[in-house]
Amino acid sequence: xxxxxxxxxxxxCCIAADAGLAQTAVRGGIVHTAAGEPIRDxxxxxxxxRISEVGPASEIxxxxxxxxxxxxxxxxxxxxxxxxIGLSGYLNQPHDxxxxxxxxxxxxxxxxxxxYNPHEHLVAWARSYGVTTIHTGHAPRSLISGQTAVxxxxxxxxxxxxxxxxxxxxxxxxxxxxxxGKKSPGTRAKMASLLxxxxxxxxxxxxxxxxxxxxxxxxxxxxxxxxxxxxxEVPLLVTAQRAQDILTALRIRDEFQIxxxxxxxxxxxxxxxxxxxxxxxxxxxxTMMRSRGETxxxxxxxxxxxxxxxxxxxxxxxYEPYVPKSRLVLFEAGVAAAHGLGFENALRSxxxxxxxxxxxxxxxxxxxxxxxxxxxxxxxxxxxYTSHCVGVVIxxxxxxxxxx
Amino acid sequence: MLRxxxxxxxxxxxxxxxxxxxAFIGARVIPIAGPEIENGTVVIHDGKIVAVGxxxxxxxxxxxxxxxxxxxxxxxxxxxxxxxxxxxxGGDGSxxxxxxxxxxxxxxxxxxxxxxxxxxxxTTANIMPGSGHLxxxxxxxxKHRDGKTIDDLLIRCADGSLAYGVKMANGTNSxxDPPFPGTRAKSAALVxxxxxxxxxxxxRVARAEGDPEKxxxxxxxxxxxxxxxEGKRVVHFHTHxxxxxxxxxxxxEEFGFRVVLQHxxxxxxxADQIAASPHVLGASLILIDSPGGKIEAKDNRLETARILDxxxxxxxxxxxxxxxxxxxxxxxxxxxxxxxxxxxRALYGLTxxxxxxxxxxxxxxxxxxxxxxxxxxxxxxxxSVYTQVLQTWVDGSKVxxxxxxxxxxxxxxxxxxxxxxxxxxxxxxxxxxx
Lengths: 404, 434
Prior knowledge:
The complex is a heterodimer of chains A (404) and B (434).
Chain A: H1 2-18, E1 24-31, E2 39-47, E3 50-56, E4 67-76, E5 78-83, H2 121-128, E6 131-137, E7 144-152, H3 158-161, E8 162-164, E9 169-172, H4 188-209, H5 221-230, E10 236-240, H6 243-256, E11 260-264, H7 272-278, E12 281-284, H8 302-308, E13 313-315, H9 329-341, H10 343-349, H11 352-358, E14 375-378, E15 389-394, E16 397-400
Parallel strand pairs in A: 1-4, 5-6, 9-10, 10-11, 11-12, 12-13
Antiparallel strand pairs in A: 1-2, 2-3, 4-14, 6-7, 7-8, 7-9, 14-15, 15-16
Chain B: H1 11-15, E1 22-29, E2 37-45, E3 48-54, E4 65-68, E5 73-76, E6 78-83, H2 112-119, E7 122-127, E8 135-138, E9 140-143, E10 166-169, H3 184-208, H4 220-229, E11 235-239, H5 242-255, E12 259-263, H6 271-276, E13 280-285, H7 304-310, E14 315-317, H8 330-338, H9 343-350, H10 352-357, E15 375-378, E16 389-394, E17 397-401, H11 405-412
Helix pairs in contact in B: 2-11, 3-4, 3-5, 8-9
């Protein structure tokens, strides 16, 4: 907890330092706020890094001295609800791959903030397509691969970028968790058993930790991390693609009464009622993820199905082991929009709904007074293949003016 | 330039073709061969295109089955110059060059990716093995007809021979432990060595003048290489880095072979050199969502399509299926337009450019009377994310219809939509490029 406070205070300093630069206004032909109906010919004013006014241009005077940008279409800064950007470098060589430590199947103590490289090429790449906030960290490639964090795509150090240093703990059920050779877990039943055993240990650790000095256990970084899940401070992010793995995740959630977010969920449409009844939120696989192996049954329409069922859903850029090294949520949401989801919900899936799932909707995800000044500017429908992102603003600072 | 003569229509090709003329009336027609027609009609019969023109000026035979496609778009089926659908395989790990290995002998026609290609509006594809070898084998040009065996998909030339090319690669994918090369210079040396042998073989065959006593023992691999030397067989060369691209041009110059550059990630750095080579039929691009994923693709950029086209290089696209999804093939051209490629050139790149690279421009790639009836009906503009492929027709037969629930499953995905695909993403599991 001390670490969290320390990072938060550093972040606070940064905003203060930028305050003089962050007096910005953006005028849009149409502004999609993700907080109500879109506003035509609108202005967004950002003062000291935060949105101070939103409304029709006819009603808002842009203060003198404010840097003013304009674009056909303005949206909230986009959020990638689950990726490995900053950990899985674009060269895909051993020296730049920090998303997966393979020495053990269970390592919840591994922190995303100790691995994130804000200068990695794909950070600026995603940002230039309108992404301003990411939920990044350890990849879905072992039973418990490590921690995730929520970060802004700005700043030269992780402390400048961090929003939530510990967002979730990443677990995987299914092929990603299967160890090769004689290593464990080698089967689905063993995965569930090992995961349950870890949670049992964490529960016992919490109980013993509260006891008197003599019985108090040695500090365990691993169990400290899992204890946060047991104590409902941090959700377990469970990657499960097959319907059977999704149900295993829900079964474990019920047993331990822990907060859980489903990740991937390629066959979610097979168990929609179960997910909805459990009240679990879904960070859905990239729409264009390859449909092979355990994702062979994925559908372009799953996001639409989940929204129709009332399940809060975000679309992710995900983790890619090969080409392309990172997918862009702008494109992934666009294909979902065209396959039943529609424009408004597709935009929500990479803005406000993503923010709510990540628990950062107090700061980002919509264009509302008091929220961080994070905007993406486009020269047309953001989801059209042939439109361009023409500007990106984070905390009121113009961080990209490239035409992408 | 050698061109394949018009094909003999296969019985298999016509098995499902309509005896009744089909007239598509009222669509916005993008013929590629000429300007777009706002209210157009296309008539097909016996597997061929019979008429294309303004609806007001195009006669529809009385016997024709009429399709009201007002508000829709019709254009030629897409040509994918580089796909791995069908879990195609070429040579094995026994060596770096396998000119004797045929894609023909390895394709699983029950692989759902073939149906997905139909759902994406792809009507012709070059299915290739590789690229983990310097020469991974013979490719296979196929029509995406409905087929139960590979024979149903084949494309034959006038002399009855099969239409196909040869897949080669340089750069990092073909660098492995011996007997594979470990460096770029060794890669080029091994290729040169084999082509020198092929030239000798060719000369010995020529000197024998048909005398069985003097003919060298038949060598299936060298026969293929001789076809390359003689310009009968196009090389599809996987190449990414600028210096590797230039190495391809150097080899093509030395041995006189004709080449389609595949991937060409750094093509934007050497566009003029590519344009100046008389040996290059064209460049086929894969445009990816972010650079990297492998070190050679670190400078892959959407602008390459515009830059190569502007330099005068025939520029097309490929899916590299499964690297990108055949169902979203139109996206490739749209991303090219996003980065400045003119719209008509991008649409050409999806169709005629591929036809030219497969040397089938007399048969496919545009809507013109006499050409194969390979066309797609779209719900809207081919460059829009919101557009769906509604129907795909190959050789006059409808092979995909979005209103059919089974076809729709392939188009959208869902339970059972990927039957018979390998459990492991071929190549990626081994860290190789498809």
